[in-house]
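User: I'll paste a sequence; please echo it back and then give the predicted structure.

Assistant: Echoing your sequence first, then the prediction.
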Amino acid sequence: WYREGEGAERFLLAQPGVAKAPVNKAALDLLVAWHGEPLGRLTHDGFEWRWKPGRRAGPALVRETTPGKLPAFIESLLPEGWLAQVLHERDEREALRRGRRYMSNIVIVEGREELAALPADILTTTLAGYIDTGRFTGRYAGPARGEIEETFEQNLARIFARAETPRLSGVQIKAPMSLMPDGALVPAIDQPFTHILKPAGTAGFEMLPVVEWLCLELGRSAGFDVPDAALLEMPDGMSPALVVERFDIRRAPADQRRLAMEDFCSILDLPASAKYDGTIERMARGLRPLSTDPASDLDILFRRAVFAWLIADGDMHLKNLAVLKVAEVDAKAFTSVRFAPLYDAVTTRVFPGLGGDRMALKLNGKDDRLTPQDFLALARTIGVSAGDAETAIADLTARVADRAQGLQLPAFAAEAEAAKTAQEKVIALVGERCKALAVEGD
């Protein structure tokens, strides 16, 4: 029996076992959905990305222009700057693995069953009902500095520790918020993401929300489409914050439109790191075949370039300019692709170390010391008539200069000396540029 046992052992050891398949721990297989509807699967085999669009009749939102590379539209949604540092994500794969909700009504998850658990971003309470002369009159219920030594940024970072918290791009500190029917502004962790909170910066940028509010008001007076925004009195003695209403989401539960915002880094198939590398002329080339009203949008692009110069906005780069895409119910293509409303407009020259800040994007080969002749040369290149360009310059300089003279901060914000100083600097700089461009154009 001993020899029989040895023979049996040899027989069993000699049998080909079931080989255990190697596990690719670097692989990733994610479902990308838009307004809850699956668009396709995004996979990574440890070496390169693959986009596999699903079978659907709707408009194409995600494009794979370079095989092996993360589609530019998806890349444009990922966190950068402050949020990227907070999340400590090593690469694109980790960022996508840890996040779920993004701008433009995009959700990226591993399985279809996760979609139903996430709230849809639908605007049911508008900011307009809680604004009084630029001041938010609702109740802030977000993170505060607290009575302990932790900073506001650390408290804010805790919100992003959860995968359900929407991710935002941009280097400025931002938080996704939800405006409730009772006027409470709460973190959008398990609530619809309807508003963006922009707290005060640090190291000389404490008045960034104040300056942005001023610039948005100037943009509104210039005739641009601008989302509702208000300055918010923050707790614990913090500087004012800015709350801005999202314009890329549905406006009511009955609204069945599909909306997406695509910035010009995505449109031009450029990474976020190249957001300062473009020109206004290159933007026009990307905008013309995409827009459903190219003549009007090229006029807006021209006016936005003039406006950026008038307010000394050195941060109007490719990620701060976008188109808003809208598809009606059952439409197989986008029914509207138009220049997106004004956002992230800031007079950068009023901040420490940026007194000589130039335009973020060149036009007519220049990013400083711009004259009406430079703008007229831009107009010729992008297809705006000389008459329309001259009218736009005259109209913008008059409107912006007039509004700047009467622009006042909300009373609570104006109590801070730093806010009054920032306002005075913005108004003086804008006034000088409007006068110079108007005189040179005569």
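The longest helix spans residues 417-441. The first strand starts at residue 28 and ends at 34.
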